[in-house]
Each structure stands twice: as structure tokens, then as C-alpha cells.
Amino acid sequence: MVQNHTLQLLSLLAMDKPASFTKDDIRAEKIKVFKNLYHPTDEELKEHFIRGQYRSGKVDGMKYISYRSEPNVNPESMTETFASGAFFVDTDRFRDVPFFFRTGKRLTEKGTHVNIIFKQMDSIFGEPLAPNVLTIYIQPTEGFSLSLNGKKRWVKSLALRQILLTIERTRLLQVLHQTHMKKTDLRCFEQ
């Protein structure tokens, strides 16, 4: 799981702009990300990465068997079914920026999304602020949301709140169609 999807997402997020958008130029930039991945020591691996395997139990009243009890699985299997941790890309742009991941089987929620948490600055408003977050939804629903700090409407004081802007791929296509975009313009969103 980690070596496939997670590292592909990491390389797309951390790569520099390719010379062109051909597969060879994109691949070259992704390879640069992999070459610049920080290689943690054994101690750092123990501290920053978690691996596990699901066990039997109940969730919302439903019973589930352990991974080792699954059909065609060795009862002594040590195969991980969960991993979590942080990658670091050792480049000027991303040095000391963690790329957190969490992946596994039999989790309570299925889906793939990326949260980009913007750097938190000191608040000038005298109160702590929630972080601004851009979320890109990949599966099962494609789309994005942007969570920002904003002023509450109709309040004379400077009261702040979280504002959430969300759009799904299907809704985006509907909006673009309603604005009478040509079919050729819509194709770029359908791919």
C-alpha cells in the first residue's frame, strides 16, 4: 500500500514543475523526489512510523475476524495491514515539511484524500486560529474543499470562524455546463 499509492501521491505533490507535461518529463521530476527522500535512521523509524495488523473485534455491533483468520492467510502471518508515518523530502522547498500518511485495510472509512495544511502564522487577532486546509478528494468522491478562517457576518466585533468551501467533480461539471462552456472545454475536467 505505502510503496504504491502513497509514494505516487507524495511524488506528485512534491515534484517541481516539469519541463513539459509529457510522461517522460513528469517521470523525471517524480524520480527527483524519490532521490531526495530523507532516509531515517533505525531509531527515527521506530519513533515516526507505526505498522500493525488488524485483530478481531466489534464495530457498531458487527463482529469482524482478524487478518490471520481471513481465508487464504497464514495464521502466523506478520504482514502489516496498517501503516502510518511521515516522509520528508530533502529539498530547499520542502525541507522540514512532513508528508504524513495513514493507510490500511479494515479502517472505519474508505477513501483517498490529501490534506494540505498551510503554515500557521502567529494570530494578529488575539485568539488562536484553526489552520487553513486544502483537501483534495481522490476516491470515492473526486473534488476539493478549502477551509479558511474568516470573519463572522453581521457581527460588529472581529469574531472569526471557519469557512468551508467544497465542490465535487460532478457538481463542477454541472456548473461548467450551465455556464455554456463548449464540450471541448469540459473534456479537460472529465479526464
Classify the beta-strand content into a percent band.
25-35%
Shape: globular
What is the strand arrangement across the widest sheet? 6-7-8-9
**How many beta-strand elements?**
9
Our measurement of the CA-to-CA distance between the termini, rounded to an integer number of angstroms, reads 24 Å
Structural class: alpha+beta
Mean pLDDT comes to 82
3D structure, described in words:
- This protein is an alpha+beta fold and 191 residues long.
- It is 27% helix and 28% strand.
- It has helices at 2-14, 23-35, 42-48, 169-178, 183-190; strands at 50-52, 57-59, 62-64, 82-88, 98-104, 112-117, 133-139, 143-151, 160-168.
- Strands 6-7-8-9 form a four-stranded antiparallel β-sheet. Strands 1-4-5 form a three-stranded antiparallel β-sheet.
- It starts with a helix and ends with a helix.
What attributes does this structure have?
191 residues; alpha+beta; three-stranded antiparallel β-sheet; 5 helices; 27% helix; globular; disordered C terminus
List the helices and strands and how they pair.
Elements: H1 2-14, H2 23-35, H3 42-48, E1 50-52, E2 57-59, E3 62-64, E4 82-88, E5 98-104, E6 112-117, E7 133-139, E8 143-151, E9 160-168, H4 169-178, H5 183-190
Antiparallel strand pairs: 1-4, 2-3, 4-5, 6-7, 7-8, 8-9
Helix pairs in contact: 1-2, 4-5
